[in-house]
Amino acid sequence: MKILVANDDGINAKGIRELTKALSQVAEVYVIAPDTQRSGASHSITMHKKLRFVPAKVEGATKAYSFTGTPADCVKMGLELLRRQNIMIDAVFAGINHGGNLGTDTLYSGTVGAAREGLVDGVFSVAVSVNSHEADDFGYACKLAVAAAKAFDKGMFPKPHEFMLNINVPNIDEDKIKGLKVAKLGIRDYDNWFNPVHLEDGSIEICYEGKPVSFDMANEIDLPADVLLMDMGYATVTPLGYELTAKNAAAIEETASYAVSVEFLK
């Protein structure tokens, strides 16, 4: 089994190096990661600009490169580079991210974007995160990643791959983690994230930050929300796809009504 590891925190981040060492116990690992911090890059790719792969050394990796592109670039371009070296990647792992990728934050996440790019390319993909930007212990997250790799290798996730896995681990001692729960994406918002500073030249300076707020979704009748389970001390795993069509009955009906109404405007 050959695994490509990417991230959005950059090739020198502790999380990606711990993940690489862990996965190298069960697979042949290749690393292609941004040369700088690229958090919040989502699924963006670089166009009309030359990018560069630079050989790097990462413990546990058969081969590694730092790359001047986005996290999604690392996977999109990295898979193609490796193919041209006759290296066919079986799975993509993104992380381990320093900070959770929960709820609606997955829309902004470069870690999730990298894994989703693997899914778009037809490769089994997993995003792994620890819910703190100051995370230092990646042991349990590594165990979950290795378990996912072993499950894939045993055929638990057959092709065609229609979803990726988004794994999040609370930043607490492993013996205090209550277990792993399947969850849906919740709603993630932040208190006091927009604090403008008015400068003398008339410009306004801001920094995107704030304390995360988890909306109470305890009364949901189907899957519980990941943000709620994280607050309760559980690790979570959520299947994510790239097919974004809203398929609930109301969405289809209202859109159909709009389409019909347009005909009367002609």
Automatic annotation (TrEMBL):
<dbReference type="Pfam" id="PF01975">
    <property type="entry name" value="SurE"/>
</dbReference>
<feature type="binding site">
    <location>
        <position position="39"/>
    </location>
    <ligand>
        <name>a divalent metal cation</name>
    </ligand>
</feature>
<dbReference type="GO" id="GO:0008254">
    <property type="term" value="F:3'-nucleotidase activity"/>
</dbReference>
<keyword id="KW-0479">Metal-binding</keyword>
<comment type="function">
    <text>Nucleotidase that shows phosphatase activity on nucleoside 5'-monophosphates.</text>
</comment>
<feature type="domain" description="Survival protein SurE-like phosphatase/nucleotidase">
    <location>
        <begin position="3"/>
        <end position="191"/>
    </location>
</feature>
<feature type="binding site">
    <location>
        <position position="8"/>
    </location>
    <ligand>
        <name>a divalent metal cation</name>
    </ligand>
</feature>
<keyword id="KW-0547">Nucleotide-binding</keyword>
<dbReference type="GO" id="GO:0008253">
    <property type="term" value="F:5'-nucleotidase activity"/>
</dbReference>
<protein>
    <recommendedName>
        <fullName>5'-nucleotidase SurE</fullName>
        <ecNumber>3.1.3.5</ecNumber>
    </recommendedName>
</protein>
<comment type="similarity">
    <text>Belongs to the SurE nucleotidase family.</text>
</comment>
<dbReference type="InterPro" id="IPR002828">
    <property type="entry name" value="SurE-like_Pase/nucleotidase"/>
</dbReference>
<keyword id="KW-0378">Hydrolase</keyword>
<keyword id="KW-0963">Cytoplasm</keyword>
<dbReference type="InterPro" id="IPR030048">
    <property type="entry name" value="SurE"/>
</dbReference>
<dbReference type="InterPro" id="IPR036523">
    <property type="entry name" value="SurE-like_sf"/>
</dbReference>
<feature type="binding site">
    <location>
        <position position="9"/>
    </location>
    <ligand>
        <name>a divalent metal cation</name>
    </ligand>
</feature>
<feature type="binding site">
    <location>
        <position position="97"/>
    </location>
    <ligand>
        <name>a divalent metal cation</name>
    </ligand>
</feature>
